[in-house]
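Summary of Year 1 activities. Much of the first year was spent building the evaluation harness for sequence design. The harness presents a backbone, in tokenized form, and records the residue chosen at every position. We chose the following record to illustrate the format because it has been used consistently in internal testing since the harness was completed.
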């Protein structure tokens, strides 16, 4: 809209659209106009049993818009007593979206998405009514139908604030309003003024309320009538959103707190204003919403101090409590917790003179806080030094204490209402930020020198545990938990807050990674670093978003990180490449991280000294010894300090070669220590100070130069900060003349592994990601390969068995990797069909009906390409240092492999004559690499300035190719000379045509004539003249990004993010080449020609790969859903060729006759497959529930065609295959089901949950027969049942079953279910590993697995996390372990074979191990790209399944 001046001061919406004519508005259901007795004017009544079926919609069509730009939306309505109502506001935002804001008394809690906000509405009632008194006394308020005494309400919603606060969106205009039953509506309007309905025009004039101040009375045509002598608030309700009040622990819209009064009740003589609310609303999404107490024009400024007193009244130091006259200050009686400040700056104009005559407040009585003894708030992690090194700042409950070290004088910062959970200084220590724990995690910003609170805001619902200031004080970063207990990171801009303004949120992000510590870097305010369990991450704020990348930790990925620190005092001009990040862990490791390469440089470990005369003199190694947990680390320009769990403070040289100082406890208490002196070149002592806090509420202060000692001891150091008084002075070792008796011996040592000097083979194992300002962010294009996040690492020491000697041979691969890009190819003339799944390429030879597999990659394959003669295949795998392999299709042998790209390979393509092939790097490393197809040698490499999305060779010109990316299209020409070794590539770049807007070119294909076609991220198709290198035509082909583009003669195939596959007739495009300007579809119509869609189909996901024949009649298409579709345009047929799981596969089982097998997945699907054809037979889907385990009913049961599956909500579902329906649903557990099996007889189902309960259920009645609680508290990893007469064990029973728990305990039971008998036969407890190893692995502990030995059920197999990596054979008759087999890795799954004494063992290191149990002979297989979670032999033992994430491999078992 060109001008919005006509909307001032307000817009009457009903009058604007002439609602009574119903031309620009719509109604549905029971909507009628009637005369209201209270308002004495006509109103609209909306009634109906279902609110969504009766409504008034303004405007009428969704294509229309009100276009009202007013900030405030006002609704005059009355909910129908005893009924529910609902209101929807569709608001357009400047980011190009439409956000729906809904409120209703049907909503029980606040919910939000990217485009929808839902607020519960609490209906008010008449004053002193039963409902009113009940709601006031209710702890959570009353949410539900409107009460009988509900009143007419004037509701105001601040659209601008709501969108900014909850969604970080900018308000543009109100698009539409939908009023749903049940309610009566007088009118609604928008305005930029904050209008007060309870104030008349005469009162407003006296109080100085006018539109120039952004406020005023409500317009007369919108006002409610008030009887003469009455008060507006006695008859009506006024609700503002947002507001200052608080009632519920979640966001809601409700009437004001009657105890706090309303704005109209405040007289001119009022001397107090509330400032907590407006500040609080800027921070916490969980802050409840109630009515506002003050108009914006009357809001008070924060008074930094109480009124001045004469010197005789008080001393300078201390905290003063004043007694004020009753009429001067309001009380703290409400539950909002807002603070009350005395202020006269916010009084209305009429009372200004009176405020000048206000009497000075009398300080009677006076309480002066003199000293605080104690340390620690919600945590003892924080103790800060000022820059001068003379003061230390620390929390004590809800008070911040600043103490001068020499004089012990204390200064207090008071204002928090709960324990302080975080503290941080800016670089100059002039600004102090603090946070408190509890549900109201308030962040306060303090002027450190003045002691006043500058600002207060919130962002987290609770548990704000970390704060970090930038060096300049302009950025504040915080980490906490949202109301769903998910980690939330918020970055504030505090420049205005430091000047007394508001702190604005720059970026927020939710993350699943654990964050213990997060710090803003000193050299760049937009960069942060964090650490936590199993991760160290680098963060950056850019373009309003907060992004992060993980540091590649390699073998140290499972460590528990506790703290990170940069070396302080470095040169300001130091480049990013020179920065080193230090990270400490609970296992005693200190990692030095290259900030630029995002990789580990050096690793050191702090370990206790070994006893020289111990009975067991086993030498500790770098990975086996018990490390000392490091809780905190700090690095200055001279030394590094560590605080450890054993209570020692250690100062090291920067190369960690020697301990300069070590201070700790002696005989149960801390001893005084005499540290080594360090001398500067001039002979004077240089001092440094440390402030160390511990697990107990104590504080340690150390003066290094004079050894003044320390006070208030602690048992474990958990936070440490270093203040270096003179960074230029070097650290010198101890004087040789010092007496040995005066020095404390070093009681620990460090083992150093230098990764800088590693061999090239070892260096290749490190994933290197450069973090540089010149490197682009991930482009807005789905074409780039995103590798699946893996927690496993490949064991490089494992060797595969010799060919033709393997004990198992790969038979089939189930599924297709929809995560790849361009990872499918088809040559219809040669009958070759290839696709990837995990690290394996599957070759289907269609003419012979055979299948072969290309095995050699160890990482997930990103893309592949087939040569034009179909004799050669190229594949690329890995997300860092990608490996490109060339395969011979006939022999399935690898002809060569090479690595050149630093990141993943984006695309592969062969030249027309197959002499060359091209590989394209992804956005991290946008490089075009040209290779020789014969020798697999790199011929030429060209670095691009922006990401490249696709590339293709010309089908007509032998040395011509083109590529598209973020900067447009690049026309390239290959120049060759006498030999292929002399090759160079020249290119010409052309930007996208302006007709497509600000988009990226995503895909391209050549036409047989001299033009090519490209697609865009906006759904356009562009035609280019290759000779003139210009775009001559553009048309819109899809609503979303197009990533697949194929052209054959005059037919074009397009497919993209919407899942829509279209076949176009483009013969008319050739006639537009002569146009001098870029033509559109309209131009073609004027010339009597057009491009048309011949056929169209919508598939099950985003299209990532496609291959068609030369006539475009039939082809194969791959989607992100893991499906390969056969498309035949001629007969309009679609056939699913290959289908697989997209989410993690949790279990796989065979049927008894092995004719079928079933798989279950994290996405809640259960799929049944044919073993012969590997085709999907039937699929059962449960929405929003993960399926964790399943079992097939035994053949001995009455009907063997049933599958029982366990789900994450504790339910069991039984599916009948004959009817393809769910037969029964049971709920024997309250937690996730982790293991399930039918009894050997099929009479009962045994299931176990994550909390250790085992349930016995009837598959006929669904009743829970028995619950076994012996394993309570430990997750159950496996259950198995076998037929076995138990008389030999002295118990009655015809079958046995075992239960294995995560607590390394196995129970064996004898049962006869026909007689309802179940007795414990044996109970096994296996030894636990050392506690240090348990802490090292934490949540990634290997499972405890047990199984009956098929050849003799009286033997039990067990493996788990214990003293050694081994497999134990336990005899139930001898009651002892009779045999052990050592393992090379901790087992994650086992499966004994029913024949041949074979055992399959899977591990997290991606190794599938086949073991001959009689001899111990084994073979290792490395075909998976991730850690194995399931392996399963068939009932006959001739087949074996292995599963790693979504990769399902089927093996033939010849045997060892």
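For this record, the design step produced the sequence shown next.
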């Amino acid at each position: 809209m060109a001008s919005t001046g006509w909307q001032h001061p307000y817009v009457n919406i009903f009058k604007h659209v002439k609602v009574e004519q119903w031309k620009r508005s719509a109604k549905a259901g029971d909507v009628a106009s009637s005369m209201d007795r209270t308002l004495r004017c006509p109103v609209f009544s909306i009634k109906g049993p279902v609110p969504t079926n009766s409504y008034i919609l303004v405007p009428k069509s969704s294509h229309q818009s009100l276009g009202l730009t007013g900030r405030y939306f006002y609704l005059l309505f009355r909910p129908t007593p005893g009924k529910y109502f609902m209101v929807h506001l569709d608001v357009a935002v400047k980011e190009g979206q439409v956000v729906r804001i809904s409120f209703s008394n049907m909503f029980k809690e606040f919910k939000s998405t990217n485009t929808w906000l839902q607020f519960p509405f609490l209906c008010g009632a008449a004053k002193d009514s039963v409902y009113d008194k009940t709601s006031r006394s209710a702890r959570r308020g009353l949410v539900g139908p409107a009460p009988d005494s509900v009143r007419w309400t004037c509701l105001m919603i601040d659209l601008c604030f709501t969108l900014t606060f909850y969604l970080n969106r900018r308000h543009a205009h109100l698009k539409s309003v939908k009023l749903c039953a049940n309610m009566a509506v007088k009118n609604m309007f928008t305005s930029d003024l904050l209008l007060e309905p309870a104030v008349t025009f005469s009162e407003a004039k006296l109080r100085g309320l006018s539109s120039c101040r952004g406020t005023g009375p409500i317009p007369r045509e919108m006002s409610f009538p008030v009887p003469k002598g009455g008060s507006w608030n006695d008859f009506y309700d006024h609700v503002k959103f947002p507001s200052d009040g608080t009632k519920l622990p979640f966001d809601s819209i409700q009437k004001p707190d009657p105890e706090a009064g309303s704005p109209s009740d405040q007289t001119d003589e009022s001397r107090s204003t509330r400032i907590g609310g407006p500040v609080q609303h800027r921070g916490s999404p969980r802050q409840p919403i109630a009515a506002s107490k003050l108009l914006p024009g009357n809001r008070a400024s924060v008074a930094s101090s109480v009124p001045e007193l004469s010197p005789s009244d008080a001393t300078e130091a201390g905290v003063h409590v004043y007694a004020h006259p009753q009429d001067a200050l309001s009380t703290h009686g409400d539950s909002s917790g807002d603070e009350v400040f005395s202020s006269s700056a916010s009084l209305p104009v009429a009372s200004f003179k009176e405020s000048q005559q206000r009497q000075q407040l009398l300080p009677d009585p006076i309480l002066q806080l003199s000293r605080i003894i104690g340390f620690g708030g919600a945590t003892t992690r924080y103790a800060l030094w000022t820059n001068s090194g003379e003061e230390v700042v620390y929390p004590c409950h809800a008070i911040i204490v600043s103490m001068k070290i020499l004089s012990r004088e204390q200064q207090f910062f008071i204002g928090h209402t709960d324990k302080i959970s975080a503290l941080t200084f800016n670089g100059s220590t002039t600004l102090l930020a603090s946070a408190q724990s509890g549900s109201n995690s308030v962040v306060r910003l303090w002027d450190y020198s003045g002691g006043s609170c500058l600002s207060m805001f919130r962002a987290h619902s609770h548990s704000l545990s970390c704060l970090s200031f930038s060096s300049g004080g302009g950025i504040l970063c915080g980490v906490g938990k949202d109301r769903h207990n998910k980690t939330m990171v918020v970055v504030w801009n505090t420049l205005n807050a430091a000047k007394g303004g508001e702190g604005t949120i720059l970026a927020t992000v939710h993350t699943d990674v654990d964050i213990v510590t997060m710090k803003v870097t000193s050299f760049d305010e937009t960069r942060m670093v964090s650490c936590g369990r199993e991760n160290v991450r680098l963060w950056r704020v850019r373009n309003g978003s907060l992004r992060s990348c993980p540091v590649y930790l390699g073998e140290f990925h499972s460590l528990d990180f506790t703290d990170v620190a940069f070396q302080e005092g470095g040169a300001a001009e130091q480049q990013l490449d020179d920065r080193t990040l230090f990270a400490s862990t609970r296992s005693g490791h200190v990692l030095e991280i290259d900030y630029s390469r995002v990789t580990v440089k050096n690793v050191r470990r702090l370990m206790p000294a070994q006893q020289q005369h111990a009975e067991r003199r086993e030498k500790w190694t770098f990975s086996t010894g018990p490390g000392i947990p490091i809780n905190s680390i700090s690095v200055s320009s001279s030394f590094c300090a560590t605080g450890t769990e054993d209570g020692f403070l250690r100062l090291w040289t920067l190369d960690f070669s020697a301990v300069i100082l070590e201070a700790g406890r002696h005989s149960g208490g801390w001893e005084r220590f005499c540290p080594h002196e360090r001398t500067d070149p001039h002979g004077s002592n240089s001092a440094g100070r440390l402030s160390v806090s511990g697990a107990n509420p104590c504080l340690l202060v150390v003066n290094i130069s004079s050894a003044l000692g320390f006070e208030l001891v602690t048992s474990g150091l958990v936070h440490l900060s270093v203040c270096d008084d003179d960074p230029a002075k070097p650290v010198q070792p101890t004087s040789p003349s010092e007496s040995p008796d005066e020095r404390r011996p070093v009681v620990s040592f460090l083992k150093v592994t230098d990764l800088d000097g590693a061999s090239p083979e070892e260096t290749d194992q490190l994933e290197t990601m450069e973090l540089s300002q010149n490197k682009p962010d991930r482009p807005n294009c789905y074409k780039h390969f995103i590798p699946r996040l893996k927690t496993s690492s490949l064991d490089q020491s494992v060797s595969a068995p010799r060919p033709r000697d393997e004990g198992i041979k790969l038979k089939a691969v189930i599924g297709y990797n929809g995560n790849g890009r361009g990872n499918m190819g088809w040559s219809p003339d040669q009958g070759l069909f290839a696709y990837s799944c995990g690290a394996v390429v599957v070759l289907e030879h269609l003419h012979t009906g055979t299948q072969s597999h290309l095995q050699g990659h160890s990482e997930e394959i990103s893309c592949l390409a087939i040569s034009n003669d179909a004799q050669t295949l190229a594949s690329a795998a890995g997300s860092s240092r990608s490996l490109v392999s060339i395969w011979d299709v006939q022999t399935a042998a690898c002809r060569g492999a090479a690595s050149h790209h630093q990141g993943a390979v984006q695309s592969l393509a062969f030249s027309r004559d197959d002499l060359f092939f091209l590989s394209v790097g992804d956005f991290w490393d946008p490089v075009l690499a040209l290779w020789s197809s014969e020798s697999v040698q790199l011929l030429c490499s060209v670095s691009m300035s922006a990401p490249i999305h696709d590339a293709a060779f010309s089908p007509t010109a032998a040395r011509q190719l083109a590529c598209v990316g973020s900067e447009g299209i690049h026309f390239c020409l290959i120049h060759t000379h006498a030999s292929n070794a002399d090759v160079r590539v020249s290119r010409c770049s052309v930007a996208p045509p302006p007709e497509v807007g600000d988009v990226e070119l995503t895909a391209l294909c050549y036409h047989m004539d001299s033009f090519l076609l490209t697609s865009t991220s906006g759904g356009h198709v562009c035609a280019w003249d290759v000779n003139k290198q210009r775009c001559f035509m553009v048309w819109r082909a899809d609503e979303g990004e197009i990533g697949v583009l194929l052209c054959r003669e005059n037919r074009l195939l397009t497919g993209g993010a919407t899942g829509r596959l279209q076949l176009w007739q483009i013969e008319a495009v050739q006639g537009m080449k002569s146009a001098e300007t870029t033509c559109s579809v309209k131009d073609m119509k004027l010339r009597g020609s057009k491009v048309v869609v011949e056929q169209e189909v919508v598939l099950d996901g985003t299209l990532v790969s496609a291959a068609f024949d030369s006539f475009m009649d039939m082809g194969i298409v791959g989607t992100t859903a893991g499906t390969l579709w056969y498309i035949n345009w001629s007969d309009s047929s679609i056939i699913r060729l290959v289908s697989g799981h997209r989410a993690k596969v949790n279990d796989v089982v065979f049927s008894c006759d092995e004719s079928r097998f079933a798989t279950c997945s994290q996405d809640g699907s259960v799929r049944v497959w044919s073993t012969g054809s590997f085709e999907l037979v039937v699929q059962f889907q449960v929405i929003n529930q993960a399926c964790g385990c399943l079992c097939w009913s035994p053949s001995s049961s009455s009907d063997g065609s049933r599958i029982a599956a366990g789900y994450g909500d504790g339910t069991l579902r039984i599916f009948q295959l004959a009817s393809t329906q769910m037969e029964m649903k049971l709920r024997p557990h309250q937690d996730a089901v982790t293991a399930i099996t039918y009894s050997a007889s099929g009479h009962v189902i045994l299931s176990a949950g994550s909390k250790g309960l085992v349930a016995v259920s009837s598959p006929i009645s669904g009743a829970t027969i028995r619950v076994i609680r012996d394993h309570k508290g430990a997750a159950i990893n496996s259950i198995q049942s076998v037929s076995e007469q138990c008389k030999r064990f002295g118990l009655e029973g015809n079958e046995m079953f075992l239960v294995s728990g995560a607590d390394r305990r196995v129970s064996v039971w004898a049962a006869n279910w026909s007689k309802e008998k179940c007795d414990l036969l044996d109970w096994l407890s296996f030894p636990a590993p050392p506690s240090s190893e348990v802490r090292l692995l934490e949540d990634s502990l290997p499972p405890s697995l047990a199984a009956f030995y098929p050849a003799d059920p009286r033997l039990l197999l067990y493996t788990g996390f214990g003293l050694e990596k081994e497999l134990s054979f336990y005899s139930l008759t001898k009651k002892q372990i009779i045999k052990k087999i050592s393992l090379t890795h901790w087992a994650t799954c086992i499966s004994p074979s029913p024949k041949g004494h074979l055992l399959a063992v899977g591990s997290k290191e991606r190794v599938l191990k086949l073991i001959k149990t009689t001899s111990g002979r084994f073979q290792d297989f490395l075909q998976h790209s991730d850690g194995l979670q399931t392996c399963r032999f068939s009932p006959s033992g001739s087949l074996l399944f292995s599963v790693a994430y979504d990769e399902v491999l089927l093996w033939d078992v010849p045997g060892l």
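The chain has a mean pLDDT of 78. Quantitative recovery figures across the full test set are reported in Table 2.
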